[in-house]
Design goal:
6 helices; 209 residues; globular; 33% helix; four-stranded antiparallel β-sheet
Length: 209
């Protein structure tokens, strides 16, 4: 049986950063569940914006700073900042805390594993060939400077009776090397035959540790 570890958790503190940038023993359980709910609300509301990561900081019990990394910041900001103001007000009303919402643009979404996985999912849900979608994502990532990329899909591929998995690898993917900068993302495509899981690993080079 394979022993697998999450590429991000494996490298926390070295080449990867925590998505929750706070620690509080007294309120840990409550705030952790609150963080998850905040992420779900934002992701569901602005899924077309191409959100990769949501970082949450808590300077004190009354304030929450949310940083959203997105490929299309205009969707979240809205006209003259109307949309981001609505989001902040909605979060403050629900969680009874003061929120500050910051937006960071992802310059090259082709090198963001989460966005690549969601791109493949969108193509599969539109009944495009999963093989074509996977190969297109790989080509785009390599053109943008990725040193390696692996894409895996699993489920009833092409409506087959028996579920299986298929994967493609281009370039290098040193999963055991701690200083390797490896981005990892997952997404699920819902089709009439059932769910198809998509996983993406992107190797961006080595960090200076």
């Amino acid at each position: 049986m394979g022993q697998k570890v999450h590429p991000r958790g494996f490298r926390l503190g070295l080449t990867a950063d925590w998505q929750a940038r706070w620690f509080n023993e007294k309120n840990y359980k409550e705030w952790l569940l609150e963080d998850e709910e905040i992420r779900k609300i934002i992701k569901k509301k602005y899924y077309p914006a191409g959100i990769s990561e949501i970082y949450i900081e808590r300077p004190d019990a009354e304030r929450v700073n949310v940083t959203i990394k997105t490929a299309r910041p205009g969707v979240i900001i809205g006209r003259k900042g109307e949309e981001i103001t609505k989001l902040r007000q909605e979060l403050e009303e629900k969680f009874k805390r003061r929120f500050v919402v910051n937006i960071e643009e992802i310059k090259t979404p082709e090198l963001d594993a989460q966005l690549v996985a969601e791109f493949i999912v969108s193509r599969i849900e539109k009944r495009a060939s999963y093989k074509v979608a996977m190969k297109r994502a790989i080509i785009n990532a390599m053109k943008k400077g990725a040193q390696g990329i692996k894409v895996m899909v699993a489920g009833r591929l092409g409506g087959a009776e028996i579920a299986r998995k298929e994967w493609y690898l281009r370039g290098r993917l040193p999963l055991q090397k701690l200083k390797a900068i490896i981005d990892y993302g997952t997404a699920v495509a819902w089709t009439k035959y059932g769910s198809i899981g998509v996983k993406v690993w992107i190797y961006k080079g080595d960090a200076e540790i």
